[in-house]
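User: My collaborator sent over this chain with a note saying "see what the structure looks like." That's all I know about it. Can you take a look?
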Amino acid sequence: MNISCLNEALSGASSIVLSLWFASSGLAAVIGNAVVLWLFYKNESLRTISNRFLASLCVADFTVGLVIDPTWIAIRCWIQPPRAHILRQVINLFWIHTTAATVFNLCCVSVDRFIAIRFPFRYQDIITKQGCYAVLIMVWLYSLFVPFSRILVDNRTNIEKLWFSLTFITFVLPLSVVTLCYFWIFKIARKQSRRIKRENLQNSQEDSFTVEAIQNHKAIKTIGFVLGVFIV
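Assistant: Without extra context I'll predict from the sequence alone. Here is the result:
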């Protein structure tokens, strides 16, 4: 792994461009996720188990915009300390933690949606409020533990092995699970959509179910699009 590019000093123009980019993306993350979290807090009807996973994901993204982006601007774009400097270690810890928290929360959201679509009548038995809290606590504890593995490694060969392991554990493996979940979700949703179009429902209850199913199908498409953008 060639990490020499991370040791090079940025030019003044590069620092300005990157600072503007991180500032704008950080501001968008803070505002957008703050609005979602505020709505979740103010509306009791939104405090479902599924939305609790989404709220946890919003907290992770909010932390990126509020902490990581400003820290990256200050350290990487302007101070630009040498590789062995303590500030480099700090920013490494921060971004590994937030990346792990974001990806694992996204994985939880995807698995939750998969269970809701695949096992609709058993969902409340499988995903309980206590189970939801237990999973979220484990996600945040693990995402806090992962960065400290960087402190224990000094040898360059071991560092390269560490980066490879962290990439697989915190990115490749969770996103593989996410991709598989949404593959099955789209497959099931498409089958339901085709079945609904073939049927002529008679009473208002069935009509209501049809509308809800169509809305869920559109929501799944939206989430899938957001997921695709995130992976890219």
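A starting point for your reply to your collaborator: The radius of gyration is 21 Å.
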